[in-house]
Amino acid sequence: MYAYTQRRADGQGVDAFMHANPFIEHRGLAMVFNPTTETMDVDLVLPLYYTGITEHAGVAIEGQNVQPYALARDYSVTVPLSMPPKTLTYVVITSMD
After folding, report:
1. How many helices (H) and strands (E) would you count in the chain?
2. What are the angstrom distances between the C-alpha of 60 and each of 8, 10, 63, 73?
3. Do β-strands 76-83 and 40-47 pair in parallel, antiparallel, or remain unpaired?
4. Which residues pair with 40 in a beta bridge?
């Protein structure tokens, strides 16, 4: 399962991938990285269908400050991120249903 930023992973922008497991507390983990030499501001779309979450997800960037998000009709959430050059971060997803 891939998190996506509206473009193919090509090293020219923010890239991400996501693991999902509906049977554990942290239902999803997305790893996000910026391989470029520029700061990138992106709206990261995370498809949460396979996490088993149906209405509300808790999203924590680097495990800090869980923010509630309502899922879109396609079981996704859009998380705004600002990524400094040559950095990586992670996003933890939990159920708030």
Report:
1. 0, 7
2. 24, 26, 5, 21
3. antiparallel
4. 83
* Domains delineated in the chain: 15-95 (2.60.40)
Kindly report the CA angle at 60 between 36 and 32, in degrees rounded to 5?
Answer: 20
User: What is the dihedral angle through the alpha carbons of 89, 7, 5, 73, rounded to the nearest 10 degrees?
Assistant: -150
- Cα–Cα distance, 61 to 40 (Å, whole number): 16
User: pLDDT tens digits for 32-41?
Assistant: 999 999 999 9
Q: Which residue has the tokens 């979450």?
A: 53
Structure tokens at 49: 């269908």
Look up the pTM and report it: 0.87
CA distances in angstroms from 31 to 12, 37, 97, listed in the order given: 17, 19, 24
pLDDT in tens, 67-93: 999 999 999 999 999 999 999 999 999
